[in-house]
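Q: Convert this sequence to structure tokens.
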Amino acid sequence: MTKHPFSGTGVAIVTPFLENGDIDQAGLEKLVNHLVEGNVDYLVVLGTTGENATLNKEEKQLVFSLVNAFNKGRAKLVAGIGGNDTRAVTKAFSEFDLTGYSAILSVSPYYNKPNAEGIFQHYKAINDAAPLPVIMYNVPGRTGMNVNTATTLRIANACKNIIATKEASGNMEQILQIIKDKPEGFEVISGDDGITLPLIACGAIGVISVLANAYPKPFSDMVNFCLEGNFSAARPIHEKMLPVIQSMFAEGSPSGVKAYLGELNVVKETFRLPVVGVSAQHKETIKSIMKGI
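A:
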């Protein structure tokens, strides 16, 4: 069986900022090297974790181009291009220079809460317009609407340029039903670090991770063990990472992951409003957890 191009560990990378709010280009280069040297399989650029909602078009293009330049062809690249205006999303596909990128991650529409037919028509338009294969992204905790099992399977069967879904619904019954009934060539990718092990055990092909920003090598090792069916080797890593995952999301993301990256001296712990850093009390909790890693 041919390996899916996005099996393994993807990382939804953070966007480093300088204290004045500009893109931290040196920090971005350091982060890319940290991840590639940690043996991740691909980088997802300007997903939710990348604070894409607060970057303008020129800044987004800068980040896309810089990551491609710093990556030097070592890992596959996925561009985060989504939104709640279907026309704007499809127009953006032709407006960005996506040299070096192999796919697009496109989140389901948020805020305007379309019904199932609206979600299907949105992805049908994306399928028809996208210049690269598309990974759809279901994260109802942020969008306000779940892309349910029937809609996901309808998209998977009708939209052949949509090759996978990043599932972050947390609904195990839904995700397992999609894995069971999906057509050939369409795959499920975990969108939650904490349930990656059981999802791979049930047929998911990997993860798009937040945690792997900080700990790329151990998390990639865990995913690879799972894909090999070696769960006895994967489980201790999974259990060691659980307190990291819990603390990383306790006060919001990317606040938590940037706290870890700051302590690891990979990127500065800087944000764009309305995102802010974790509390001083929670920072001490993170430092304590890090000592045990």
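The radius of gyration is 18 Å.
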